[in-house]
Amino acid sequence: MSEIRVFEPKDYPAVKRLFIDGIMENVTPAFKEALLHPVNLAVLAGIAALTYALPGHLRWLGFVVATAWIAAVYWCCHMFYAIYVNDKLASEMKDIEKHFLSLPGNCYWVAEHKKLKVIGGMVAVKSCAGASKKEMGDEGPRQNNMFRMIVDRQYRRHGLGVRLTQTVLDFAQEHEYKTCILGTSKAQKAAQKLYLKVGFQLIKTYTPDIKRFISWKCIFSFHFNSFPFCCFFFFFE
Ligand SMILES: CC(C)(COP(=O)(O)OP(=O)(O)OC[C@H]1O[C@@H](n2cnc3c(N)ncnc32)[C@H](O)[C@@H]1OP(=O)(O)O)[C@@H](O)C(=O)NCCC(=O)NCCS
Q1: Listed residues 71, 88, 105: the one ending a domain
Q2: Structural domain count, the chain
Q3: Is residue 180 situated within a structural domain?
Q4: In testing the pocket of ligand 1, which one of 147, 151, 182, 200 has its CB within 8 Å of the most ligand atoms?
Q5: 117 and 213: one domain?
Q6: Of 22, 29, 152, 155, which cross-links 187 as Cys (Cβ 3.0–4.6 Å)?
Q7: What's the 188 CA to ligand 1 centre distance in angstroms?
């Protein structure tokens, strides 16, 4: 059993490892999504057509080009997440106390195994105050953003993800946020099921311009009701 508590500086090495592992494990699912993307299928069909048009003794070139293309797709997926990890480790993850613990409305939690004292999961929340309406929708400062939801592989499917999510929602309600939003990629199926299970609603899917080829982003939202004892939620749309 794990205890969920606020991040402490001594947790940094474990949190950093969990962050790197949790983000980089998205490479393979993203690659699979990319392989089935219409653009990729069109390119592979084009290569196949060109290969067919080549004289027999040159057809091996088609296989080389197709393999190189698939390797390039994998490399793009890998680089997308590697750049993201490096970027975050050099910015907000470098100083978690400054970015999450010194600002009201922000927080960073870890799940620590009670006996083993191992960090098995984490999650963070940030206030959307200051973000543009275009980015965050109508709720503005009364909305917060949940992210860094990662559970170590060996502790998965024991309800830790639900408990971490509930920690964020309890915190958000205490701080009188009206909605909690989060973004995830199409490839993160387990995360999507988790959020739907807890009560988030999928409000839109879109393909950001630069990431068009490798991920469809999904936005989930959780509305708090304004009557604390009522058991229903108001959702977008
Ligand atoms: C998503 C993640 C945090 C879930 O953590 P977890 O502790 O395993 O989640 P829980 O045990 O609380 O599971 C809650 C529900 O999520 C869904 N779920 C979790 N893992 C799943 C999986 N591998 N496949 C399908 N559904 C899954 C199920 O509906 C589950 O409920 P159930 O066990 O009653 O069926 C974990 O898989 C993870 O860290 N993934 C990699 C990082 C990531 O993608 N983070 C999300 C960033 S947006």
Answers
A1: 88
A2: 2
A3: yes
A4: 151
A5: yes
A6: 29
A7: 9
Expressed in angstroms and rounded, the spacing between residue 164 Cα and the centre of ligand 1 is: 11
In-domain check, residue 161: yes
> Are residues 157 and 197 both part of a single domain?
yes
Residue 62 belongs to some domain of the structure: yes
Q: What is the average pLDDT across 155-168?
A: 96
Answer yes or no: do 104 and 216 share one domain.
Answer: yes
Q: What gap in Å lies between CA 154 and CA 193, rounded to an integer?
A: 19
Q: Please tell me if the CB atom of residue 191 comes closer than 6 angstroms to any atom of ligand 1.
A: yes
Residue 183 CA, closest ligand 1 atom number: 48
Residue 103 DSSP symbol = S
CA distance 142 to 125: 13
Q: Please give the Cα distance from 54 to 34 (Å, whole number).
A: 27
What pLDDT does 188 receive?
82
202, two tokens: 């999928």
In a shared domain, residues 84 and 108: no
Please name the helix (run of DSSP H) or strand (run of DSSP E) that holds residue 179, with its range, or none. strand 179-185
Q: What is the pLDDT of residue 140?
A: 53
DSSP bridge pairs for 218? 184, 205
Nearest to 24, CA basis, from 97, 85, 68: 85
Which of 143, 96, 141, 98 shows the shortest CA–CA distance to 123? 96
Cα separation, 198 vs 214, whole angstroms: 27
